[in-house]
């Protein structure tokens, strides 16, 4: 049943056939009638988590908060109702309009408040927090925000309880005690229900070598895949440790689809497919190789080698690497990326295929790092293919709000608005007078 305002009817305690557990009446009153309609139990109660969630987030509404699905379990004569975190749900345990969800890459509360009703997650990494917001006077109006904690307090208000907030740990190479203290601070602000701890892949870096990225030109001597196993798997170990301690983890910095099956072993809540940098690098490498194949001019391979060093595919120890080896390594990389059309989405396709086989029903893939005129339309086209339609509930599309907003419009919107506004202005009624005066 649905009320005139579009919200689900809640349980009428005066008419219910259930015996309500004493002290649970106010909580039960928030339930939609559909939740209890089919139960044959004689008693009704809510879980401790249900009460905790409502006490935290339910003060402004008469139903259950957004971001939680309603689950029931009947044992003998008692039906117990729980609230389970699921950003695919709106208030009252109603599913969002589509299983495909959207997210904002922004730590700017002003931006997030504009798109909050449309998104299910906000992602904050240090670059987004400090470079794009706190230290950006155009975004951080009047320098009002000075710390990450201040930003998170405001983001939690702007996004509301229905949005997760992914916050990246400051130093993945640090002591676990310090990391847990940092996570506890974020959890105190956002609550454990909204916080998702963002843990990066660490690659060949360690506590001893991570500082090399901040020295000189910031390039490593060794290649990105030449680290010790303990260092290369540090991010995995940290992600799994946080999961085992009860935290949801956004396991980030995933560019290649072969990262996905190993990342899934850490039981992350989110995995990622970064699109833009990988697609740009693929096209640049193809261009160098095609130019060499057409001309046999080795300068193209030398330029390719320089590009691979600058982009961390090779280390500075490889600056004089022989050109045949450079060419062979590049052809191998390009062969790994030849999957379907040249739309930059091959990593998304293959990661979704891996995700579809998992025993992790709550894990979602975040498609991130998009720009330009083609990436978002290409992603929407890919997701409309029959293979991927059943996987929409496993996908979260994220971008900065300005990029997302670009895809809400069309040239024809302007064309038709011109026609409609002109028609209203010429109409002989009060609305026309108001439109004319407001546009003059």
Automatic annotation (TrEMBL):
Do you know which Gene3D superfamilies this protein is assigned to?
Aldolase class I
What keywords are assigned to this protein? Schiff base
| Biological processes, Gene Ontology terms | carbohydrate metabolic process
Q: Which Pfam families match?
A: TAL_FSA
Presence of the UniProt keyword Flavoprotein in the record: no
Annotated signal sequence range: none
Q: State the protein's name.
A: Transaldolase
Supply the source organism for this entry. Nocardioides glacieisoli
> What does the organism's lineage look like at the top?
Bacteria, Bacillati, Actinomycetota, Actinomycetes, Propionibacteriales
């Amino acid at each position: 049943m649905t009320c005139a305002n579009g919200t689900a009817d809640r349980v009428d305690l005066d008419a219910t056939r259930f015996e309500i557990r004493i002290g649970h009446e106010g909580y039960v009153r928030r339930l939609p009638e559909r939740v209890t309609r089919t139960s044959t139990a004689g008693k009704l109660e809510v879980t401790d988590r249900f009460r905790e969630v409502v006490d935290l987030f339910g003060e402004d509404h008469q139903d259950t908060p957004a971001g939680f699905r309603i689950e029931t379990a009947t044992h003998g004569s008692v039906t117990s109702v729980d609230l389970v975190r699921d950003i695919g749900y709106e208030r009252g345990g109603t599913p969002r309009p589509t299983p495909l969800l959207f997210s904002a890459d922004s730590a700017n509360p002003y931006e997030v408040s504009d798109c909050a009703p449309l998104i299910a997650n906000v992602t904050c990494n240090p670059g987004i927090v400090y470079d794009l917001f706190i230290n950006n006077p155009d975004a951080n109006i009047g320098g009002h925000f000075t710390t990450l904690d201040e930003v998170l307090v405001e983001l939690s208000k702007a996004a509301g309880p229905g949005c997760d907030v992914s916050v990246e740990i400051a130093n993945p190479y640090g002591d676990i005690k310090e990391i847990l203290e940092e996570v506890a601070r974020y959890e105190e602000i956002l609550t454990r229900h909204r916080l998702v701890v963002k843990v990066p892949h660490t690659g060949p870096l360690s506590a001893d070598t991570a500082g090399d990225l901040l020295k000189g030109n910031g390039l490593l001597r060794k290649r990105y895949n030449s680290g010790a196993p303990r260092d290369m798997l540090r991010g995995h170990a940290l992600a799994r440790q946080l999961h085992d301690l009860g935290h949801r983890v956004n396991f980030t910095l995933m560019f290649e689809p072969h990262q996905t099956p190993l990342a899934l072993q850490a039981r992350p809540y989110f995995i990622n497919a970064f699109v833009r940098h990988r697609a740009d690098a693929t096209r640049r490498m193809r261009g160098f190789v095609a130019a060499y194949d057409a001309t046999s001019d080795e300068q193209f391979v030398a330029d390719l080698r320089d590009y691979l060093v600058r982009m961390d595919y090779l280390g500075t120890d490889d600056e004089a690497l022989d050109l045949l080896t450079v060419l062979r390594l590049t052809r191998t990389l390009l062969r790994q990326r030849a999957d379907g059309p040249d739309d930059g989405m091959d990593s998304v396709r293959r990661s979704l295929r891996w995700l579809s086989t998992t025993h992790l029903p709550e894990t979602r893939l975040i498609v991130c790092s998009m720009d330009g005129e083609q990436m978002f339309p290409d992603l929407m086209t890919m997701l409309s293919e029959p293979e991927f339609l059943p996987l929409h509930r496993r996908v979260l599309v994220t971008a900065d709000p300005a990029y997302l907003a670009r895809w809400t419009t069309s040239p024809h919107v302007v064309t038709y608005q011109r026609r409609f506004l002109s028609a209203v202005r010429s109409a002989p009624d009060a609305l026309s007078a108001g439109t004319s005066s407001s546009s003059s």
